[in-house]
């Protein structure tokens, strides 16, 4: 493990921000840290980065501090510097031995090549976010902590940041804190879920998704689907049903067992002609909502 915490606790007066957190971050992983607002994500990252002190507990980080990089959720830079100068300054401060060509490479990877010679005072919030990512990775860190790196970006900017993070897998360890669960599911191999300062789950995303959430089912029938829709909507074992195109319904159920047991009789009463009935893989968002409920 590159990071291990032991009985980590943080209190702000009578408020407990972190409660006995036992974080385990594997070397070379992209670790997704997720949770609702106020769960303790930013507090935890601040403690790991040495910017805050825990109330109790210990932290073991198996990386030299010179190879640890942190990106806050709202990075700010001197407005009179150009984007390229910001990244080059980060390179010079962190590791001057890094070749100067690395600056242009990461600026381009962040999608800022056309704006590299503009002063950052003219940058949008999304551009500043991508510039922060470039400045964070330019020194080839061993451990990166990214706090909401894609939160302010448009779809194209998010794609560039996610691609950049994905390329780091195996080359560096990344803690990727985000409330955009689809981003976490796409780029992370490990996940930790915080709620009210408690770590509810951590481990491989595959372990969380397999068997953790009740899957939705996709039902295809011969048109028309109105009778099948009405019968399923009134069935007590169905949470919700929605139309998907002309000949399909997506069914959210209370349990997979109920669906397997009652679907045939429910549809037989409606006269629907079934083409197929298949479970859909659970998403991180579904599992997250179940854990939060």
What do you see in this structure?
Strand 12 and strand 13 form a beta hairpin. Helix content is 34%, strand content 28%. Helix 2 crosses helix 3. It is of the alpha/beta class and 293 residues long. The protein has helices at 41-48, 83-94, 101-109, 125-137, 155-168, 181-187, 205-209, 226-233, 256-270, 284-292, and strands at residues 3-12, 15-21, 24-25, 30-34, 56-61, 68-71, 143-147, 173-177, 190-195, 198-204, 217-221, 238-244, 248-253, 274-279. Strands 6-7-8-4-9-10 form a 6-stranded mixed beta sheet, with helices on both faces. Strands 1, 2, 3 and 5 form a 4-stranded antiparallel beta sheet that branches. The mean pLDDT is 86. The chain is globular, with a radius of gyration of 23 Å. The two termini are 31 Å apart. The longest helix is centred in the last third of the chain and has 15 residues, at 256-270. It has 10 helices and 14 strands.
Q: Which helices and strands appear, and what pairs or packs with what?
A:
Blueprint: E1 3-12, E2 15-21, E3 24-25, E4 30-34, H1 41-48, E5 56-61, E6 68-71, H2 83-94, H3 101-109, H4 125-137, E7 143-147, H5 155-168, E8 173-177, H6 181-187, E9 190-195, E10 198-204, H7 205-209, E11 217-221, H8 226-233, E12 238-244, E13 248-253, H9 256-270, E14 274-279, H10 284-292
Parallel strand pairs: 4-8, 4-9, 6-7, 7-8
Antiparallel strand pairs: 1-2, 1-3, 1-5, 9-10, 11-13, 11-14, 12-13
Helix pairs in contact: 2-3, 2-4, 3-4, 8-9
């Amino acid at each position: 493990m590159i990071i291990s915490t032991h009985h980590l606790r943080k209190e702000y007066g009578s408020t407990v921000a972190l409660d006995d957190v036992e974080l385990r971050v594997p070397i070379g992983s992209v670790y997704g840290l997720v949770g609702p607002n106020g769960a303790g994500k930013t507090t935890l990252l601040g403690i790991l980065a040495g910017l805050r002190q825990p109330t109790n507990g210990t932290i073991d980080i198996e990386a030299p501090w010179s190879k640890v990089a942190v990106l806050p959720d709202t990075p700010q830079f001197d407005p009179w510097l150009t984007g390229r100068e910001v990244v080059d300054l980060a390179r010079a401060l962190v590791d001057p031995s890094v070749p100067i060509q690395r600056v242009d490479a990461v600026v381009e990877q962040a999608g800022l090549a056309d704006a590299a010679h503009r002063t950052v005072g003219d940058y949008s919030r999304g551009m500043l976010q991508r510039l922060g990512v470039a400045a964070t990775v330019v020194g080839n860190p061993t451990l990166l902590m990214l706090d909401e790196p894609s939160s302010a970006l448009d779809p194209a900017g998010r794609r560039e940041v996610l691609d950049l993070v994905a390329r780091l897998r195996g080359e560096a360890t990344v803690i990727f804190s985000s409330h955009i669960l689809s981003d976490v599911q796409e780029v992370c191999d490990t996940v930790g879920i915080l709620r009210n300062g408690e770590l509810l789950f951590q481990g491989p995303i595959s372990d969380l998704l397999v068997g953790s959430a009740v899957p939705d089912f996709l039902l295809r029938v011969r048109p028309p689907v109105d009778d099948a829709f009405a019968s399923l909507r009134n069935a007590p074992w169905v949470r919700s049903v929605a139309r998907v195109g002309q000949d399909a319904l997506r069914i959210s159920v209370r349990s997979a067992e109920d669906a397997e047991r009652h679907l045939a009789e429910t549809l037989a009463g409606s006269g629907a002609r079934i083409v197929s009935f298949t479970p859909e893989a659970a998403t991180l968002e579904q599992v997250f909502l179940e854990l939060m409920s």
